[in-house]
Amino acid sequence: MKSKKLTFLILSGPTKEYIDPVRFISNESSGKMGNALAQAALKRKCDVIFISGPSSVFSNNIKLIKVTTALEMFKEAKLNFKKADIVISAAAITDYCPVITYKRKIKKNKAEMLIKLKRNPDIIGYCGKNKKNQVVAGFALETENLIDNARLKLKSKKLDLITANGKESLGSDSATMYIINVDGVLEIKNKNKKIIAEKIIGETIRMFKNIESGKKIS
């Protein structure tokens, strides 16, 4: 019997959380990894729903849903979640956002200024905890205890796979990454992100086919 065409939901890029019209909290994510994942999925003849925060790294053949903030990304992810067989978040979603966003530029009139922050939603955690016969994969960027911290995220967010990487991967074309699931750790050392993306896409498809056939996901 012919296998059905799979649909990927891929989250990419950074998010920006505005303090006022010209200042924001964000990070150095370029969107290169998310774009590479989308290309690898399209190469496998899969459908791709691609949601990205602010980034200049887009391929013309990707159908793009543009967002800016974590809340906007969460809204679009929830709208498209049930359409996907496989969800991968390579987005560097800003964990916190300002409690108050000022409508006008804040003037420099004090020696110090305190900005109160609140937690943004855990998007990949939501997907992991609400999946129904889906594969959900995430990324863990860590500055210490890389493998251990990634494994904690894998378990706490109920993910099927997580890819761990260090700060040096931000904005780069190549990186060393560790693909982790319940079976163990696969190190991919200093490879182009396109090669890493193809490995991740292949592994998530394999895991989905196990679900489809009633086997264990590992």
Automatic annotation (TrEMBL):
Gene Ontology BP terms: coenzyme A biosynthetic process
Q: Which InterPro entries does this one have? A: CoaB-like_sf (IPR035929), DNA/pantothenate-metab_flavo_C (IPR007085)
Upper lineage: Bacteria, Pseudomonadati, Elusimicrobiota, Endomicrobiia, Endomicrobiales
Species whose genome carries this gene: Endomicrobium trichonymphae
Domain of life assignment: Bacteria
Q: Which SUPFAM superfamilies match?
A: CoaB-like (SSF102645)
Q: Please state every residue range assigned to the domain named DNA/pantothenate metabolism flavoprotein C-terminal.
A: 7-204
GO MF term (any one): catalytic activity
Q: Which Pfam families match?
A: DFP
* Protein name according to UniProt: DNA/pantothenate metabolism flavoprotein C-terminal domain-containing protein
